[in-house]
Amino acid sequence: MLKSQVDELMPSDSNIENDPQSLRTKYLAERDKRVRPEGDAQYISVGDEFAGYESDPYGDPDFARDPITEDTEVLLIGGGHAGLLGAYHLRQAGVDEFRIIEKAGDFGGTWYWNRYPNCRCDVESYIYLPLIEQFGKMPTEKYIRSSEILAHAQRVARTLNLYDKAIFRTTVKELRWNEEIGRWMVSTDRGDTIRARFVAMGSGPLNRPKLPGIPGIETFKGRSFHTSRWDYGYTGGDETGNLTGLRDKRVAIVGTGATAVQAITALAESCGHLFVVQRTPAAVDPRDNRPTDPAWWSSHREPGWWEQRARNFEGFFLGVPQEEDLVSDGWTTNWKRFADAARQAACAPSDSEIPVTQGVDFEKMGVIRARIDAIVKDPATAEALKPWYNWFCKRPLFHDGYYEVFNRPNVTLIDTKGKSLDRITENAIVFDGVEHEVDCIIYASGFEAAAPSNRSGGFDLIGKGGLALEEHWSDGMRTLHGMLIHNFPNIATIHGIKQTVTSWNGSLILYKHTEHFVKLVQYCRDHGYKSFEATKDAEAGWLEVLKAKSVADLQFLADCTPGYINNEGKNPEQAIYASMYGPGLFDFIDLIKQWRESEITHDLEFEPLN
User: Fold this and answer.
1) Do residue 337 and residue 463 come from a single domain?
2) Residue 597 domain boundaries
3) Would you say 280 and 470 are in contact if contact means Cβ atoms under 8 Å apart?
4) Number of domains in the chain
5) Which pLDDT does position 455 carry in this prediction?
6) Is residue 56 a part of any domain in this protein?
7) Among 27-41, 71-85, 145-159, 317-331, which is the least confidently predicted range?
8) What percent of the chain has pLDDT over 90?
9) Is 465 helix (H, G, I), strand (E, B) or coil?
10) Within-domain flag for 12
11) First to last CA, the chain
12) Backbone phi, psi, residue 541, to 5°
């Protein structure tokens, strides 16, 4: 649609919120401003000349050790929640011969790296913390700080005696299958050679930082870093704020996503001046955090309570009626409204051109826009901050105090209206020909979403006959259950998102994926098999299942403002939610359980031990 046509269709008064057709036109116009022909290629990998953005600011830069050469039964790549849960299930299965390789200096995964001020998980701690039922202590709040999540991971690792199993500050460079011995030959950046029979790739779907491809980004002479590698040596302070090193500094933060909306509130309180570079406005609801009630926690100890609560949370997202809302937060209350609207539409079809659920979405986003008007004093700034897209086009955000920041005299919003910055110079950011001198640039530009595990982990994966994973997938990704790959025996992707399922509470699917992997390991050990491998037919069959059971609304994704959820607006049929198992997590859990009981020998090839 041409801009002149959009302008003709847009109402000239302020009643757009009451006109569904005008809202849809506005949404599409805002989307069109942001679609870029290069799609995801607009971002820069942190490798090569930008490798410094991925270095560890929390570890010992002089750390060194001798290379390790050894054999192990199981290798877990990643010491985050996937690694902890994998180790837990191995212990439960009586498998003690395993190793964990982690590039960070400790357990914790994303919570080792993400320590920016005000960093919290937006899923309540009672269902997010893995193994909290088995090894946890009472979280201090419903939404705890990143340091408390990290401390929980370390406590689980100590309880399971995992520190002796871990190889930290080490990056896997290559996994190569050796057909003669039936083992993965694992090479690392520290000269290690580890021969592993089974491998679980748990490097995470949001692991590798990315940078915006802004011209001149490499020329900046001031301090710059990614939010996942926060430089407290420069900023001062800690996760609670008080960034004293920025009192006389001009700081630009690039991005207004889930990370930025949290960090911005602390930066605004401390910076001499803060420039917030916004391409697409955030849609932020209140978090309404609160301390944990000790009496409630003490009474909350029935065996199996964690999974019951996690399933209750997931049930609202899937539209499965729940007798009670155990979590009762911004996620579940809004999901319930959408599910109720969908059931209403199914029972009483409407002649309206606007689906009932779309009407609920318009209302939901209208409340957020009205809240911005009520909080932000400057009308032009308030207008620039308003999100014009559907609620699920981006990850819904929850934070307290974000919009209030823009009433501060030391905060300037640079709204690029969907564009990139013009360029970065040695001492400034430039937009629309205006130069803003800054001392520091902080990139809140996110991660390479849903990249294959080998890419997110930064290693080459070479299967049977020297076949590289990229070559195997040259005609498109194909797996069994999103986890197992033909020609790549004894290896599984843990929570790779595509061709499997995910959850807004990632800990539940991580629990089920690691459990599934360990049961495959146990099956081989119990039956005297050296290896298992998904057949070519099994991969093809799973692709047919995905296609037949897809519930992806491709038109919805195409209409969304660009982001990682719709593949940056390019080829939305390849987007995360378009390539997942449609029936959802509950059905997937039942499916893989039934598969293990009745179909495993049909879809896997096994090689016996010699």
Assistant:
1) no
2) 69-208+449-548+580-608
3) no
4) 2
5) 64
6) no
7) 27-41
8) 78
9) helix
10) no
11) 66
12) -65, -40
Please indicate, yes or no, whether residues 322 and 461 belong to a single structural domain of this protein.
no
Rounded mean pLDDT of 98-114?
97
Q: Phi/psi at 167 (nearest 5 deg)?
A: -120, 105
Inter-residue contact 406 to 48 (CB < 8 Å): no
| One domain, residues 455 and 604 | yes
User: Residue type at 49?
Assistant: E
Q: Which two tokens stand for residue 220?
A: 């900046």
Express each pLDDT in 194-232 by its tens digit: 999 999 999 877 778 889 999 999 999 999 999 999 999
Three-state SS for 560?
A: coil
How high is the pLDDT of residue 2? 32
In a domain, 189, yes or no: yes
Alpha-carbon distance 101 to 515, whole Å? 19
In a shared domain, residues 478 and 601: yes
Take residue 472 and report the two structure tokens written for it.
């195997």
Identify whether the C-beta of residue 394 lies closer than 8 Å to the C-beta of residue 258.
no
In this structure, are 474 and 600 located in the same domain? Answer: yes
Q: Are residues 471 and 600 in the same domain?
A: yes
| Residue where a domain terminates, one of 314, 329, 347 | 347
* Rounded alpha-carbon distances, angstroms, from residue 288 to 124, 285, 387: 11, 9, 21
What's the rounded Cα separation, in Å, for the pair 34 and 387? 13
Please indicate, yes or no, whether residues 317 and 189 belong to a single structural domain of this protein. Answer: no
pLDDT in tens, 47-75: 777 888 889 999 888 999 999 999 999 99
- DSSP calls for 176-231: EEETTTTEEEEEETT--EEEEEEEEE---SS-SBEEE--TTGGG--SEEEEGGG--
CATH code at position 528: 3.50.50.60
Q: Does the CA dihedral 570-575-579-583 come out positive or negative?
A: negative
Are residue 189 and residue 331 in the same domain, yes or no? no
CB distance 478 to 230 below 8 Å: no
Question: Per the domain annotation, does 217 fall within a domain?
Answer: no
**What are the structure tokens assigned to 69, written together?**
């050469």
Report how far residue 426's alpha carbon sits from residue 437's, in angstroms, rounded to the nearest whole number.
Answer: 9
Whole-angstrom Cα distance, residue 431 to residue 507? 40
pLDDT of residue 8: 37
Q: Which pLDDT tens digit goes with each residue over 170-200?
A: 999 999 999 999 999 999 999 999 999 999 9
Whether the per-residue pLDDT at 457 is higher than 70: the answer is: no
Average pLDDT in the 89-109 region?
A: 97
Amino acid at 507: S
